[in-house]
Amino acid sequence: MPSSLPALSALCMDLPPANTQVQHTIAQREAELTKPPGSLGQLEEMTRWLGGWQHRTAPRLEHVQVLIFAGNHGVMAHRVSPWPVDVTAQMVRNFEHGGAAINQIARMAQAELAVVPVHNLTPTADFTTAPAMSEQDFLAAVQVGFNAVPQTCDLLCLGEMGIGNTTTASALCAALTGQSGTDWAGQGTGLDTAGTAHKARVIDTALAYHAAHLDNPLEVARRLGGYELAATLGATLAARLMHIPVILDGFVCTAAVAPLAHLHPNALDHTALSHCPTETGHTARLAQHLRMRPILSGLGLRLGEGSGAALAIPILRAAVACHTGMATFAQAAVSEKA
């Protein structure tokens, strides 16, 4: 891993592409399967996406890993969430004991689950008066995420846990898009209208404080981000270098990796967004900004914890099963369209 922000930036600018020959081969087989062309819709796109990044003409999902990165945030000094910061550590223990929604969904989806508390859950600095992380601590958190990705992984699903991290994610989005706190602050985990307005003002204070440094995406991630968000960025980068496709779980995870897209226009091509809670909310706006289409829609998911990413796994399993298991017209002796 690079030991400085410029070195990390250089790594982010030199990313391996998908295997287009593999994707072409997958498309050719899809055209021969016993179904009208394109009739499996997005499932066919998912198969090409998986195969192109895995470099396999027959994609597989034998080892699917769900990683949840957890961290705390100094901006909670401004009470930007109705939940106390102790909940982060309490939920980490709940994950470890198998009691959360993600435990049940990961088990159902036949995925391995690991929870990684970053920086010992020590909060970042209050980003309204200082950078959230020193350069050393930011790079260390990126390294944690980078090292957490198993080399044998066929698909990586990313989630997060951190009281206050929707404020951090909103701040990242506002900085990267040149917009304001009001544009990106949402209700998070239960704020009322006054609380949401307060959250927006806190974000605007941070944007003003760091204004001279917001033209550098990695500085945005360091100054306005969080330890678990930095780890998410690191894991996404590691997956790219290891040819592993990634599913991002909603707003916070996607905001965490948005700086990569501002460094390299194709940096997130190996990722897919699991879901948007609504068609017009902040996740949907971020997805539009990053040209991403959610796998799931209409379910109203807004839990986080990797729950949406894990819930998308069976959809991808279905896509792979259809592509690898269906007969061709020739094999099934079915007449093709005249």
Model description:
With 338 residues, the protein is an alpha/beta fold. The protein is 49% helix and 8% strand. The chain has a 5-stranded parallel β-sheet with strand order 2-1-3-4-5, sandwiched between helices. Helix 12 (250-263) links the parallel strand 4 and strand 5 (271-273). Helix 6 (135-147) crosses helix 11 (227-241) and helix 7 crosses helix 9. The model has no long low-confidence stretch (mean pLDDT 96).
Residue ranges: pLDDT <50 for 5 or more in a row? none
Query: Roughly how many Å is the radius of gyration?
Result: 20 Å
Biggest pleated-sheet summary: 5 strands, parallel
- Give the CA-CA distance, first to last residue: 56 Å
Strand order of the largest sheet: 2-1-3-4-5
Helix content: 40-55%
Question: What general form does the structure show?
Answer: globular
H-E order:
HHHEHHEHEHHHHHEHEHHHH
Total count of helical runs of at least 4 residues: 16
**How would you state the average pLDDT, rounded?**
96
Keywords for this entry:
single chain, 338 residues, alpha/beta, 5-stranded parallel beta sheet, 16 helices, globular
